[in-house]
Design brief:
443 residues, Cytochrome p450, metal-binding, heme binding, Cyt_P450_CS, heme, iron
Length: 443
Amino acid sequence: KSTGKPFVVRWWANDYIVMPPKYLNDVRGASWRHLSFFENISNALHLHRSVGDLYTVDSSQRMVDVVKKGLNPRIPQLTTTLVQEIDYALNILIGTSSEWKDIQAMELLAEVAHRAATRVLIGEELCRDDAFIRQSMSFLESIFVTALVITKLPLGPFRSLLSRPISFIHRGKLHKCMNMLRPLVNARMEEKDLHAIPKKLDAIQWTLDLFPDTANNSDQDRFLKELLHNLWAGSSAPGGMMTEVIWQLLLNFQNIEVLRKEASEALHRHGWSEKMLNSLHLQDSFIRETNRLFPTGSITCVRTVVGKPFQFSDGLILPAGTRFGFPAQAIQHDHDALRNPSEFDGFRFAGKNTKDISVTDGDKREGASSVDKSYFPWGYGNHVCPGRFFAVRLMKLVITKLILEYDIKWDRKTKDRPIPVHVEGQFVPNMDQKIHLRKCTAL
């Protein structure tokens, strides 16, 4: 309920202060070193037990820079590559038959997102290696599961001490992935100074380019962990978000044809390109509205106060070590800036972003990858997700592929959405709900 006052909840076995939205401006202007998202997530999920100081204030910036300075400027070059990987994933997971096939939607879309993200955030050498795909998906899942086990067990004051032995299996999965990745990284390091070899479009190359000392760094394990944790960040959310979009399309079935027509015209004009993606105004709005009403979690913009107390503009002071966040789901469902904010309107934002298709999604005032005080899927402030531009483009490519090249339906007779799994304030799309897919016979 909206009280305008902070209150405390128990979340991930820690006390968190839930802040009213009036404090967002202060968070936006704060130093990321003073109010740390990475410190918060590391402690909440006990990541320090498997990756050491990877998420500390001074160590996490390299992972962010690889996305901001490596991935983001090259996103327009990656469209064709992503389309190829999405095609490959859909073909092996669904097949090319024109007969209806029952598919668990969340499982399908999570793997498609993971395979495409692996191509960009790991490399072409492993993105179609089924052994690596299976092992890396198991590792990413175990990050959340291990944290959940540590949180739910009644460990009391021994929770921190026992978190290390409890994370033993997770660390084993991490090291298996690292060992599969190590030969590739070694080969790339040896190729680094060979000018005759074309540079790859992937995170290994961007890390070596942005941080030349990496090739001479004896701590190769850190490099491998950074690659795998960026893969976690880049592949986990899009699969769930796409699943929620599919639910909304099936519940508002008439919208599928609207989005199909828009996508068909955009593809005819621009081919698989950045211009095509930027002209999908209706789909962009549909994604944003789905993310707004059906977010991945109830609390976001979480921070830990680091080093010294933090004072807000109204005089409120939080001591160092305080954890806090904002009730994103509640704010997004009830915000004065929106008309009937609790009702789903898939094309609510479309008319506001249609003037110039040359403007990228990230520059659109109310685009799916933009951020404001009524829309928090990507966080807020200095720790806003740097990979959101990639995530939205990946979602658009997969959704466009599905609505243009496949017929899609489900056998639910009710109008209610598949019930998600609620875990520690996180919302995981229903894992059991199936959809029926078949390759379109007339393309």
